[in-house]
Amino acid sequence: MKYREERYSGDIKVTKFLADDSADTLDSQDRNTYHSFMDDITNQVRDQLRQSNLYRFVAIIGLLFAVLGFSMIMYFSSGNTWVLLGGAYYSFFAYLLVEAYIQANRNYFEDQLYKKLNQEYLSH
Prior knowledge:
Oligomer: single chain
Helix content: over 70%
Structural class: mainly alpha
């Protein structure tokens, strides 16, 4: 799925949902239905992007305060620099898990949209 985001307003416009070869096989009526589907899912795509950005924001703030903050407290109490390195290492991989969840959530969202396109819009 490809979309274009307006620079100042943040509005989303879905520009492509199916692969080029799949979209080219549609007849003229289905192509019009496909374009109306892309217009209909704009708000859902915007909400999905906002949810992903919220997850990223919460993960970054949470990891900074929880993991790195705890590492700083342990560093000042013990003087061991490995504690700081361990905290940074752990927070990096914990953030990778958050990104993996966001990507899996986005894949599921796109799969549900593909099913909706086939069942509600393209079924004759």
